[in-house]
Amino acid sequence: MNPRALPVLVLAGIGLLCAIAFPFLYVTPNRLLSGEPHSPHVVALALSWVLLAGLGMLEVRGSRVAVALLAWALIAGLPLVAGMDARALLHATAASARVPLGAGFWLMWLAANLLLLDRLRGVRTSGRIVAWAGLFVALVAMSRAGAFESLALVREFHAQRGPFMDALLTHLSLAATTLVLALVIGAPLGWWAWRARRTDGAVVGVLAFLQTVPSLALFALLIGPFAWLARAWPALGALGFGGTGAAPAVFALVLYALLPVVRYTVAGLGAVPPDAREAARGLGMSRLQLLSRVQLPLGWPVLLAGLRIVAVQTIGLAAVATLIGAGGLGRFVFLGIGQGANDMVMLGTLAIIALALAVDLLFQAMLAFTERRS
Amino acid sequence: MIFAPLLLVALLLVLPHSEPWFHAWIPTLSHPLYARTSFLALTLSHLWLVALATFVAVAIGLTLGVLATRPTGRSLLPTVRAIAVIGQTFPPVAVLAIAVPLLGFGAAPTLLALTLYGVLPVLGQTVAGLDNVSPAALHAADGMGYGRWRRLWDVELPLAAGPIMAGVRLSAIVGVGTATIGSAVGATTLGSPIVEGLVGNNTAYVVQGALLVGALALSIDGLLGSVERRIRRNRR
Questions:
Q1: Which residue of B has its CA nearest to A33?
Q2: Which long-range contacts (CB under 8 A, 24 or more apart) does B67-72 make?
Q3: DSSP state, A26?
Q4: Chain A residues with CB inside 8 Å of B184's CB?
Q5: Rounded to whole angstroms, how far apart are CA atoms B231 and B234?
Q6: Are B47 and B216 spatial neighbours (Cβ–Cβ below 8 Å)?
Q7: What pLDDT score does B235 carry?
Q8: B28 touches chain A (CB under 8 A)
Q9: Residue of A nearest to B215 (CA)
C-alpha cells in the first residue's frame, strides 16, 4: 500500500464513523429545549467517505488531486447541505423551531479540513492560498445568498446582533490593550533580564509562579484589591476603575502575558550573533543605536513568534474575564450555559475560536512576511 | 518545592475554623464560610477529575505520538502536528463549552474537555521528544540487534522522557485551571466557591476557593516539575 494513503484512510474512516454514528442536525421546538436528531444523508455521506478512502488508495496519477477536490467539495458542500436541510425542516414546523448542527456535521467538517490540509502539503504556496481563499469566498458567497439563514447559529446571531458586536469589540479591545501593555512592560524587562544574565532570577520566577495559578482564581482574587483601590482613590473609581470590570481583567491578562513576552525578548536578543554586536560596536554605535539598528531587526522574528502565542492565549483567557464583569465573548458562553441556550453558547464559542485562529493566521502571515524580507 | 504542598495542607486544616476571621474582615456577610461541601471534599474531587483526565490524556497522547513516529505511521505525522497546533489555539473555555451541549451539566463535560485538551501537550511533546532522539542512539540500538519495539521501549522512550514529562505537567496544570472553570457547568470543584461567590457577591467564598485552588495548582506544578527535573538529570 502507498504509505502516503494512510492519512486519507484514517481521516476518511473518522468521517465515515461520524456520518453513521453521530447526528447531522437536530430539530428543537425552541431555542431552550433539546430536540430530535436528524441525519438525512447517511448513505450519500458514507459513500463519499468510502470514495475518498478508495481514491486515496489508488496509485494513479491524479488520484491525489481528486482527493483534494473531493475534500474541498465536502468543506464547501456540508454547510450548504445542512442549510438546505434546515430550510426544509423548518418549513414543516412551528416558527419558534430551531435547527442546530450536530456533532456529526462538525466532526465531518473538521475531518474534511484536515484532509485538505494534508493533501495540499507540498503544493506551492500560491496553490494553497488559491484553494483556501477559494473556499473562503465560496462560503461567504453562500452566506450572502442566504444559504445558512435557517440554521440555529445564524438565527441566534441575527437575534443577538447588537450585543454580539459589542462583545466582539470588547473582547478585541481587552486583548489589544493587554498585548500593548505586556509588550511595553515585558520588552524592557526582558532586555534587562538579558543584559543582567538573570533569566532564572526573581522576576521570571514570580511570573512563572503566576502562570500556574488558574485564571478564574487570579481574576477573582483581584476583585478585593481593585475595589479597595477604587475606594481609596475616588478619582480612579470615577474613571470606571473598580473591583469588577475591565481594569482587574486587563491586569490579570497582562500578568499572564508577561512571562512569554519576557522569555521571547530574551530569546530574540540572544538570537543576535555576538559577531554582529561586536561589529556594530566597532562601527561606533551607541547602545541605543545597537538596539534599534541591529538587535531589533535581527531579534524581531523571535519576538513576533512570542507575541503570536501571547495573543492566542490572551483571547482564550479573556473569555473567562466575563465572570468578573469585563464583558467580551465569554459573556455569551457563560450566559448561554446559565440559561441552557445551546445556540448562544455555540455562537460565543465559535466566535472565540474563530478569533483565536484568525489572530494566529495574522501573526503567521506577519512572520512569513518579515522572514521573506530579511 | 515543599512550600506549596505545606501551604495547601495548612489551608485545609485552618480554613474550616476560619469563620471568625472572615466575619471580622467582612461583617456584612451572614455566611462568611463556604459550607455547602467541605473544602477537603472539594479538593479531592478537583484532584480526582484532573488525575483521571490527565491519565486518559497521557494514554491517548502517548499512543498517538508513538504511532505517528513509527515508519508505517510516519505519513500521519504532519496531520497529527496540525491537530496539535490548531487544537492549542482552541481556548480551554471553548472546549468546555462545546462539551456541554453534548453531555449536559455536571462532571462529565468537564472530564471530556480536560481529557481532549490534555491530549494536545502530551502528543506534541511526545512527537517532539521522539523526533529529537539522536540518530546515533538509534543506530547503536539497531547494531545491538534490538527489535523495533525493544528499541522504542529501552532507548527512544527513556531518551524522550524529559519532554514527555513536560507535556504531562502542562496538561495537568491546564487541567487544574479548566476544572476550576468547570464548576460553572456544574462540576463540583474548588471553582464552586469562586463561582458561587461571584454570583452571590460573597467575597469570602471567592477568596477561600481561590486560595485553595492556587495552592493546589502550585503543589501539582512543583511535584511534577521535580519529577521532570529528576528524569532530565538521570538522562545525562
A1: B101
A2: B68/B127, B69/B126, B69/B127, B69/B130, B69/B131, B70/B148, B72/A3, B72/A6
A3: E
A4: 323, 334, 337
A5: 5
A6: yes
A7: 65
A8: no
A9: A213
Instruction: Supply the pLDDT for residue A167.
Output: 95
Whether residue B89 and residue A324 make contact (CB cut-off 8 A), yes or no, is: no
A22 DSSP 8-state letter: S
Instruction: State pLDDT tens for residues A358-369.
Output: 999 999 889 888
Tell whether the torsion through CA atoms of A213, A214, A215 and A217 is positive or negative: negative
DSSP state of A321: G
pTM, 2 dp? 0.89
B78: Cβ–Cβ under 8 A, 6 or more apart, which residues? Answer: A7, A118, A121
pLDDT at residue number B25:
83
Task: Count CB atoms within 10 A of the CB of residue A257.
Answer: 29
Distance from CA of A281 to the nearest CA of B (A): 37
Q: Rounded mean pLDDT of chain B? A: 88
What is residue A30's DSSP assignment? S
For residues B137 and A94, the model is more confident at: B137
Candidate from B198, B213, B221 with C-beta closest to A324: B198
DSSP string for residues in A159-215: HTHHHHHHHHHHHHHHHHHHHHHHHHHHHHHHHHHHHTT-TTSHHHHHHHHHHHS-H
Q: A98 - beta bridge partners?
A: A28
Distance CA A309, CA A223 (A): 27
With an 8 Å Cβ cutoff, are A11 and B98 in contact?
no
What does the block give as the cell for B223?
511535584
Q: What are the mean pLDDT values of chain A's consecutive 10-residue runs (374 residues total)?
A: 79 94 88 84 93 86 87 95 91 82 92 92 86 95 92 91 94 95 92 76 80 88 83 74 81 92 88 82 82 80 90 92 88 87 90 93 89 74
Return the CATH number of the domain spanning residue range A161-373.
Answer: 1.10.3720.10
Interface mutation vs chain A, best among B89, B169, B174, B226, most A CBs within 10 Å: B89
Q: Secondary structure of chain B in the HEC alphabet?
A: CCHHHHHHHHHHHHHHHCHHHHHHHCCCCCCCCCCCCCHHHHHHHHHHHHHHHHHHHHHHHHHHHHHHHCCCCHHHHHHHHHHHHHHHHCCHHHHHHHHHHHHCCCHHHHHHHHHHHHHHHHHHHHHHHHHCCCHHHHHHHHHCCCCHHHHHHHHHHHHHHHHHHHHHHHHHHHHHHHHHHHHHHCCCCCHHHHHHHHHHCCHHHHHHHHHHHHHHHHHHHHHHHHHHHHHHHHHC
The predicted complex's ipTM stands at: 0.85
CA distance B94 to A332: 11
Query: In terms of Cα–Cα distance, which of A191, A177, A184 is closest to A291?
Result: A191
- Give the sign of the dihedral formed by CA A78, CA A84, CA A89, CA A90: positive
Q: Which of A345, A352, A360 sits opposite B100 (nearest CB)?
A: A345
Q: Which of B75, B86, B102 sits opposite A103 (nearest CB)?
A: B102
Mean pLDDT calculated for residue range B198-216: 89
Spatial distance between the Cα atoms of A9 and B79, rounded to a whole number of angstroms: 12
For chain A, give every domain's residue range.
5-147, 161-373
The whole-number pLDDT of residue B215 equals 92
